[in-house]
């Protein structure tokens, strides 16, 4: 099953896509946010273009696992996306993914500006990796 992952930010949405078997993952770009309706329309097109059969949205829980303001915004977005998108939509705990993404990019020798440009889609690849790993372990 091809899955599209989203890392929701206030300014951008990072995206990543898996292959049909859920083995390989690649970044699928960064979408500049421009309003809820427009964002959902662009994601709907992306789902169709990439032939995604499911979407996973990063859920920024607090470090203690509770739902804070950012996680509530993500849950609200997820509900609206679920109503419009036409494929299953899941959430995945994304605590520390931005930190992990930054560390991976530093290890790859990327400069600060390069990391800023790629951080959202790198975080989406980590969200997708974690989701696929967790769902594989439960099957």
Can you lay out the helices and strands and say which pair or pack?
Layout: E1 3-8, E2 12-18, E3 25-32, H1 36-50, E4 54-59, H2 69-85, E5 88-93, H3 97-107, H4 112-137
Parallel strand pairs: 1-4, 4-5
Antiparallel strand pairs: 1-2, 2-3
Helix pairs in contact: 1-2, 3-4
Structure, explained:
With 139 residues, the chain is an alpha/beta fold. It contains 4 helices and 5 strands, in the order E-E-E-H-E-H-E-H-H. It has a single domain, classed as YqgF/RNase H-like domain (Nucleotidyltransferase, domain 5, 2-Layer Sandwich). 50% of the residues lie in helices and 24% in strands. A 5-stranded mixed beta sheet has the order 3-2-1-4-5, with helices on both faces. The radius of gyration is 14 Å and the shape is globular. The mean pLDDT is 92.
